[in-house]
Amino acid sequence: MRFDVVTLFPDLFAPHLTQGITRRAFESGQVDVRLWPLREHATDAYRRVDDRPFGGGPGMVMLAEPLETALAAVRADRGELPAVVHFTPAGQRLDQAQVQAWAAGPGAVLLCGRYEGIDQRVIDRHVTHQISLGDYVLSGGELAALVLLDAVARLQPGVLAAPSHEQDSFSDGLLEGPHYSRPEQLPLADGTSVPVPPVLLSGHHGQIARWRREQSLAVTARQRPELITAARASGRLSRQDEQYLLSLGL
Length: 250
Ligand code: ADE
Fold this sequence. Notes:
The protein is of the alpha/beta class. It contains 9 helices and 10 strands. A hairpin with a 5-residue loop joins strand 9 (185-187) and strand 10 (193-195). The longest helix is centred in the C-terminal third of the chain and has 19 residues, at 205-223. The two termini are 43 Å apart. The protein binds adenine. Adenine (ADE) is lined by residues 87-89, 132-134, 136-138, 141, 144.
């Protein structure tokens, strides 16, 4: 898949695309990220990419013409665009179901806004999806684009050692339970120690799977009860799950 990123700050991307487990997906071209520095598409002699809003008001607006020119250059390079994403707090909140859909698709053009926003005519003419990270305001869309690229890259085949994303939080609509590793007893300064839950050392795969499911249900019920409601409504909870929640008084 291919993502074409239109941005005023292309240098923000390299550090994130060359580190960690997702690096494999980016360097192999499995997730082919191409950067389109917007300033190179400025159309006036001063290389301006922003200006004051018509009608007055605070801040600056990203000019339509450099964005139009950049999008035309992307189209000339890759052909018809599968999707054009604009990152904005006014968009639809990104979740794992959407990430899975992007991870299985052909990619997109990612428009990273800065300042007060981008000229609405560009949005009206080109944008097919508006995505928000959450109900807060970032100084630009670059971090949001990186979030999407990271979440998509880790779902590509071969990126994670085992297909551990099948157990990710949200992959079945619930949060993941806790994880433990060495040592079996964590020694404390006062001479006591903190054990790991004994079931994890039992070697009993059925019991471990059941315990993990129950931890997942308990964490979700405590932290994000609305996810339990949604899982119930869509029939994703077994009778055993319901019995366990009942035993917790939920
Ligand atoms: N740009 C500015 N704020 C944003 C947000 N919350 N999500 C996505 N893009 C943004």
